[in-house]
Amino acid sequence: METLVTPAREVPILAQADVAVVGAGLGGVCASVAAARAGARTVLVERNAFPGGVATAGLMCSVTNYLVTRTGQVVVGGLASEFLEGLVAEGGAMPDYARTGQPQIPNDPEATKRVLIGLLAEAGVTTLYGSLLSQALVDGEQVRAIVCEAKGGPFALTGAQFVDASGDLDLFRLAGARHERVGSFSTLLFRMANVDIGALVDWLEAHLESYDETADVGTSLQDTVRNWREYGVFHLPHYAGQRIPMVADAIASGDLPARFGHHAQDLWAMGMYACRAKPGTVLVNSCAFAGDDLDVRHKSECEAEGRLLVRVLADFLVARFPGFADAYLLDTATEIGSRRTGRLCGLHTLTADEYRSGQAFPDAIGRTTEIDHTSPDRRRYAQAGQIPLRCLVSERPVNVICGSGKSASTDPCGLLRGQVGCMVVGQGAGTAAALAAAEGIPVAQVDPERLRAHLAVAGVSLA
């Protein structure tokens, strides 16, 4: 590839922070709020015009319910619970969600934006939207400042500590930290309106063979029916579409293609999420793009193909799917949502076995649960997994910590990528960064007992 040399430039320093956070997804918001509540002057930069990341711009407006274990124990508190309770109070989600029989917590993305903006404002976080990270200025083993591009021109932020909550290790990569790129797997989500969800639930109840209890987060059909009728939430398991006769018939006849364009695949996945807080609106997760989401040409092709593909899927649903006869396409996500693009090479790599077994770590900053992929019914773990601080930091730079579960140092990559995991990681990272800034020490040297005491006061579940 040809290169050119760009001229040096003077960039104004817009703000000086104790803690600067890159990325306002759920992890970045929690990191920012936690840092500010711990007393740090906190500045949050976000490339979009609103917070939420994948949950809003990516339209993944359903939180996988990793709050509870297979046995029903609630293992997550803190800002994750505060956010969800705020959604319920805002009318954007249904209450009584902390149940093992409920695999997802569908919600309204507009309510999510309002709740997140409220949390940031209440904590006193300075938030800069429309700001794309472009450069990290490294001095020895530390990041001294970051440069962002904005409509009015570039600007710099200096900071004592930085949180990389980009989800793609943007800051760590620019600062030269050790990391691993991995193949991306992404989806363009869309919503349908005027869906008769009750009719769809009735149809599933009458066609037991069409429902896969072991797909996605393993959930019985009985629980799925009860969730809608008693609790007002609906989830059709993602990647279970081939069990549904009209989907299988359309694939066999070619009416629903196996692929679309150059990149789209898995048009049959048919994951669906809905709640009575947004009547008749169904989020659809039914395509996938494999490749490198950090390659601008690949990502641009997928974004364009995805908008055309959504019309194909929407037409199919209206023509053939139970409950969709009078439905119409409401909207598509602002951007394709990436599940993963890379992982940090941290001071410790959290393994699936450590996480599944509930191994205790003296520097644990929180815990969640996940799908047990070793179990044939794909239920959640029987106990919570602990998340050590060491999987969020690297040897250098010493004043940067990972604030997104998507890119933490885990094996496999993305072990903590769910929205609950990102919120738990974000709160722990933001709190650690604030304590490190106050003491003037590398973030990895924060006293774990002091850190855990702060988190416990904030309602985080640690053991």
Keywords:
29% helix, 7-stranded mixed sheet, 2 domains, 5-stranded antiparallel sheet, 25 strands, alpha+beta, FAD/NAD(P)-binding domain, 11 helices
Secondary-structure map with pairings?
Elements: E1 13-22, H1 26-37, E2 42-45, E3 62-64, H2 78-89, E4 104-106, H3 109-123, E5 126-128, E6 132-139, E7 142-149, E8 155-164, H4 170-174, E9 179-181, E10 184-187, E11 190-193, H5 197-206, H6 221-231, E12 233-236, H7 245-253, E13 259-260, E14 264-265, E15 271-275, E16 282-285, E17 288-291, H8 296-320, E18 328-332, E19 337-338, E20 342-344, E21 350-351, H9 352-357, E22 364-368, E23 385-388, E24 400-402, E25 410-411, H10 419-439, H11 448-457
Parallel strand pairs: 1-2, 1-8, 2-5, 8-24, 21-25
Antiparallel strand pairs: 3-4, 6-7, 7-8, 9-20, 10-17, 10-19, 11-16, 11-18, 12-15, 13-14, 14-17, 15-16, 22-23
